Every structure is written in C-alpha cells, then in structure tokens.
Amino acid sequence: MERDALEQLRAWKGKRRRKPLIVEGARQVGKTWLLKEFGRTCYGQVAYVNFEEQKHLRTLFAEDFDVDRILLAIRTATKVACESGETLIVLDEIQEAENGLTVLKYFQENAPEQHVVAAGSLLGIELHKKESFPVGKVDFMTLHPLSFLEFLKAVGDKELCGLLSGRDWQLVNTFAHKFAERLRQYYFVGGMPEAVLAFSEEAGWEEVRDIQNGILRSYDRDFSKHAPVEIVPRIRQLWNSIPAQLSKENRKFVYGLVKEGARAREYELALSWLYDCGLIHQVFCVKAPRYPLKAYQEYAAFKLFAVDVGLLSAMNGIDAETLLHGNAIFTEFKGALTEQYVLQQLVQQHEPYYWAKSNSQSEIDFLLQYQGSVVPIEVKAEENLQAKSLRLYVKEYQPSLAVRTSMSAYREEEWMVNVPLYAVGSFFR
Fold first, then answer.
1. Which residue range forms the structural domain that includes residue 114?
2. Cis peptide leading into 233, omega within 30 of 0?
3. According to the model, what pLDDT value does residue 309 have?
4. Cα–Cα distance, 100 to 65 (Å, whole number)
5. DSSP string over 23-59
6. 348 has pLDDT over 60
7. What pTM was computed for the model?
8. Using 50, 70 and 90 to split pLDDT, how confident is the model at 152?
9. Domain total in the chain
10. CATH (domain of 16)
C-alpha cells in the first residue's frame, strides 16, 4: 500500500534541523504500519517500542531523562543497535509511558543525531494534559485515512491516479465513468487502511462493512476505557449525532440534535475529547471571507464531520447496492456523504472553513486559503449545475478562483471552474 505520507517522512529525515517527530492520527489510520514501512525502506534497521503492549517499559522515563541510559534500554528491549542515521527509533503509543512526551525534548537537546519518531492514537488528549510539553523541540505530522488518490493506487488503478495528478482534464473527462465508479466504491469503503486492503484483495462488501463496524466498536471501547467516566455518555451522544447533523444541512452544529434542550457548555469537554482523538473534524464559519481566514473565525459556529466517509456510511447502515447502483443516496443522504468526502480530501493539505451570509440562505460549503487567496467551493452531489450561492458570492467578492465540484465534467467557465468530485483532491494539491 502506497501512502503519500511517506514523502513527508522522507523530507523530515533529510532536514538539517530535524527534531523528534510526533505523528498524530485517529486509531487505525495506519500510523504503526507507516512508520515501520518508513524504517524498512529508508533505514538499515528499526528499533520499535510499543508502550501499550510492552507495559514493563512504561516507567522507562520516570526516573530521569539520561538519553544514554534510555538508548541502552531501547537496545536491550529491541535487540537493535541505535546507530545514528542508520536506525529509526519508533516510540509507539507514547502517551502510555510516564513522561513519554517530555523525553523527546532531551532527545532533541542531547542526542539530535538520533532519528526518533513518536506516535499514538490518544496523543491529542495527552498533549493537553502535559505541563512539560516540549514546545519548539518537536516536529508534527498528522496522518489521515487514505485519500481518494491513495485509494485508486491501492486498488490497482495507478493509471487513473496518474491522470488526476497530471491534470490532463481532457483525458480525465474521457474516463469519467471509471472515476465515478471508483468514487462510489470509495464512499462505501472509505480510507481506513484495513478496509481498503480487504477491498483491494477482493473481499466482499459485507466483509468490508464488518471491518468498519469493528473499527467503530473499538472507538466506542476507547470512550469507556480512556475518557473521564462523567463525559462518556456525552461523547457517545455527540459522536452518534454526526450523521443527523450532516443530513439536516444546518448552517452550524445544533446541540438540540444531540439531545433535546442540550447546551454548548454541557458538551464542550466531550467535543474536545473527540477532536483530540482525531475522530472528528471541526470546520468553523467565518464572519467574512477575507484573508487570513482564521482572523475571521467564529468559534461558536461550526460543523462537525467524521474522520472517514466509509465509517460515516457504516454508521448510517447504507448498503453497497444503494451506493453503487441506486439513486437513493443522492436524494436522502446526498449532501452528507458528498460533503464528508470533499472535506476528507481537503484536510489532507488544507484547513477548510465555511461561510454563511447573515439574513440570507446563501452559504458556501468550504473556503480555502489557496495560492495566496480565498477560494470558495460549492459542493453538489450529482450533476446539479445550479450554484446560486456561489454565483452570489462571486458577484459580491469577485474571487480570483471559484470552484463548483459536482459529478459533471471538468470545465472552465467565465466566473467559475467546475471540478469533478473525484478530482477535487488532486485539484487542490
């Protein structure tokens, strides 16, 4: 399986001022596999420690931060010599080790020649707990589920992936039917590596769904195992409300859909917990579509998306027949899955926002800072070419680029560009 993140890791290895790297991401997005593959292809050997499995090592950093002593312990545990430049040291599930994050500071200060990578599924939570977090002493990378481009490569369609990456729009349009077929498959399978691998090995739809349901159950177990007991019910309520939130096409997240009479302050900790675990994306509304977007962010107005479109379809119990051959998906749940898919492609390299005009129904699904300007993106689930909100936005703000993404072919018009849904990830790379 090819992951684009390998290029990021290779770039990190080649940095002159390389720091220990923290790899964040939800459980089961492939962090462990990625780091082992990085070590296998780019180093002579890998010293791999998993603090969740190797419980006796959890106190390794409790006594002191003597790097020589720590390296000796790693060599003893892994039977791998920690040779600078030749060995990748992987500290997996590092949040389980006492002072696990703090020790990275001492690797950076006292052993910068060592190539150290730390990973964990609950690192976001740990980052907020630690007062002694090594600010400025580490690099960060977030791993997401497979993008649609990565999915194409995984299922053996490297040529189709190449067409999208090369932006040969005439050829892309020629093979539109093939792209559309793969896109519907991606709506069902999503980008979780285990599900994609099973699908690539010709597993049936039921087996793929079983894998996704297993992942969802593991997330639910994490709620009970790791979250403060008093907020576990609210975490579940928030998580389970995401499909309903997306299907209602609300201008912002509505707490009343979580529980009747619910208020924001009651769910703040639960929302933070889900976000810190990497299970949700929080997309904020902006007061004005101006550069930089973050300066105009409204903290009280946001939308929530799930980590993966395949998991979202599993949460809704959407069957393969509906997605692959029927039109029901585009009448009942078209906005939800399509927006989730587009968001999932955009977050690979961007931080999306959205915009809603006061005292009006006009809303732009996503805004990006792209090539030095603010780009509006209107999402359409099918070949619906009505883009009233986008047209009004263009008239008022006159952006240098406006994008409508739909199932229609690529074409450039005077006031906007129509980008096929299956090409949106490659267009904004």
1. 5-142
2. no
3. 97
4. 10
5. EE--TTSSHHHHHHHHHHHHSSEEEEEETTT-GGGTT
6. yes
7. 0.94
8. very high
9. 2
10. 3.40.50.300
